[in-house]
Write a structure and sequence with these properties.
Distance between the termini: 40 Å
Strand content: over 45%
Shape: globular
Structural class: mainly beta
Number of helices: 0
Radius of gyration: 13 Å
Number of strands: 11
Largest sheet: 7 strands, mixed
Helix content: under 10%
C-alpha cells in the first residue's frame, strides 16, 4: 500500500512561486507514474502534470511553461515547482500515483489528501 502526503501549499500573490511536495510512504516509488491534479471549488478535478517512472514529463496547457514536475526516488518524494502563479491556479492540489496509468484522466490508484494553493490578485 502506498500513502501520499502533500505539502507546500499556501497563500501567494499573483506572479509568485510555490513548491509543492508529495511524500510517499509504504513502499518505494521508482516504478510508479506520479501526477499532480487540482480541483477548484465547483469544478472537476483536472490534470496538471505527470512524471513517469522513467522521468518523462507532460504538462497541461494551462501550466505548461510555468510549472516543473520532478521526482527524487531515494527520498520517495515528487515535487511541483510553480512559477508566475495566477489567481486561476487557486485550487486544492492532489498528488496521485499508479504503476500502470499515466494519462490525464484521474484513474490513478493512490491519492493524497491535497494541499490548498490560493493565489491573490
Amino acid at each position: 500500500q502506498l500513502q501520499l502526503v502533500e505539502s507546500g501549499g499556501g497563500l501567494v500573490q499573483a506572479g509568485g512561486s510555490l513548491r509543492l511536495s508529495c511524500a510517499a510512504s509504504g513502499r518505494t516509488i521508482y516504478d510508479y507514474n506520479m501526477a499532480w491534479f487540482r480541483q477548484a471549488p465547483g469544478k472537476e478535478r483536472e490534470f496538471v502534470a505527470i512524471i513517469s517512472w522513467g522521468s518523462d514529463t507532460f504538462y497541461s496547457v494551462s501550466v505548461s511553461g510555468r510549472c516543473t514536475i520532478s521526482r527524487d526516488n531515494t527520498k520517495k518524494t515528487v515535487f511541483l515547482q510553480m512559477n508566475n502563479l495566477k489567481p486561476e491556479d487557486t485550487a486544492v492540489y492532489y498528488c496521485a500515483a499508479d504503476r500502470w496509468h499515466s494519462g490525464e484522466s484521474p484513474d490513478y490508484n493512490y491519492w493524497g489528501q491535497g494541499t490548498q494553493v490560493t493565489v491573490s490578485s
